[in-house]
Every structure is written in C-alpha cells, then in structure tokens.
Amino acid sequence: MTPTRPPFLDGLVASLPIVMGYFPIAFSFGVAATRAGFSAPEALLLSLIIYAGASQFLALALLTSGAPVLVSAFTLIAMNLRHVLYGPALMREAGREASARHAWAWAFGLTDEVFGQALGSLARGQKFSEAHMFGLGLGAYASWLAGTAVGAVAGGGALEGWPALSAGLGFMLPALFLALLLSILSRRQLPVIAVAGVVTVVGTIVISGTSGILLGMLAGAMTGLIRR
Fold first, then answer.
1. What torsion, rounded to 10 degrees, do the Cα atoms 168, 86, 56, 66 define?
2. Taking Cα atoms as reference points, which of 101, 102, 140 lies closest to residue 118?
C-alpha cells in the first residue's frame, strides 16, 4: 500500500507551481515599491496585509500619484470583489459534507491561483480538506512574502538593465491562472467562460478595466446559474 502524505503537507506540495510563479512577480513588486519610495519594511508590510497580487502594483500607482487613501482602498476592493465568490464556489464543489469550520482563516489565502489549484484538485477526485487548504494557501503566501522581501532588499534599480524580463514578469500571474483553469476545462463550462470573457472585454473597452472585471464576473456567474 502506497503511503499517503498528511493533508497539510499535500497542500504545500500542491502549492509548488504557484510558489514558482509568485516569487518572481513578488520580487518585481518589491523592486517597484522601493523604486516608488517605500522602504523595504513598508514594501513587505504591503504584501503582508494586502496580499492582492497585481492589485498591489495598482496600489503603488495610486498612492504615489497622490490619490486619497479612501479612494485607493475602494478601488482595490472593487477590483478584488470576485474573491467573495471563490469560497462559496469552492464549497459547492466540495459538497455539503465538507467542513468549513476554519474557513475564516484559510479563506485569507484564497487567491485566484490557489482557488484554481483547489478547484482542479476537487475535479480530479481529491477529497476536500481544510488542512490541505491551509498548506496550499501558506505555500503561496510565504512565496509572495519572500519574493517581496528579496526584491525590496535588491532595490529599485534591480531590473533596470533587464526591460524584457521586467515586462514579462507582469504577464506571469494571468498566465499562471489561465494554465490552472485550462487544466480543469470541460465542454460544459465553455459557454460560461465565453460569456464572461466577452462581457469583460466589452466592459473594459466601453467603461473601464475594473468595471469590465466586475461585469464579466457577474455575467459568468449568472450564466452558470442559468445552465445548472
């Protein structure tokens, strides 16, 4: 009989693809934060508290441009409202018997990529485990903090001689999330993805990027409910 890993350790192992994707992007954020005038501890504190991936780069742009703190906060909240749906969607896939006793804690680490990885595990027949979710989220979170710290210590000029690398790092987050979603893609989900994609693009062009994301999220959710 093949020995099985404890769920927490299994979650840490499952987080490795996310860890490898998060570290270089977080490094880029640490560099950008120090370039914008933040100290290394301040840059690390932004990742420690906000932990919002690409939205942290937007936070830098807003704060350094003199935008009011409340405006910056509400902008970031609007951009990340989709995360409110991740927990319920994950628990629906996990089934009614799945425990959510400590969801208040592991839900903090439920980023786009962690959600995609967890959903993929359930689609492959793995039983839901809160310990697994803690391991999965902790691995990703630790990688983001470590990357931010290294980038902040390296300083604002660390990527000046590598413009192509700097540009490429910005694409890694959406590419990683897309790869995780494609791994669990089925024909039944195509109409939902198509509707969400079209509405997002149209909303972004006609209104704004934030509005496009919100409208695409709502359109995809409504399409999913109608097709159930």
1. 130
2. 140
CB 18 within 8 A of CB 143: yes
Q: What is the pTM of this model?
A: 0.76
Asked whether the predicted pLDDT for residue 156 surpasses 70, the reply is no
Residue 107 and residue 115: Cα distance in Å, rounded?
A: 10
50 touches 56 (CB < 8 A): yes
Q: What is the C-alpha to C-alpha distance for residues 5 and 13, in angstroms, rounded to an integer?
A: 10
User: Minimal CA–CA distance to 126: which of 3, 1, 4, 19?
Assistant: 4
Rounded Cα–Cα distance for residues 148 and 157 (Å): 15
- Contacts of residue 27, defined as CB under 8 A and 6 or more positions apart, other chains included, come to 147, 148, 150, 151, 154, 169
The answer to whether the CB of 113 falls within 8 A of the CB of 21 is yes
- Model confidence pLDDT, tens digit, residues 196-223: 889 888 988 888 766 777 788 778 777 7
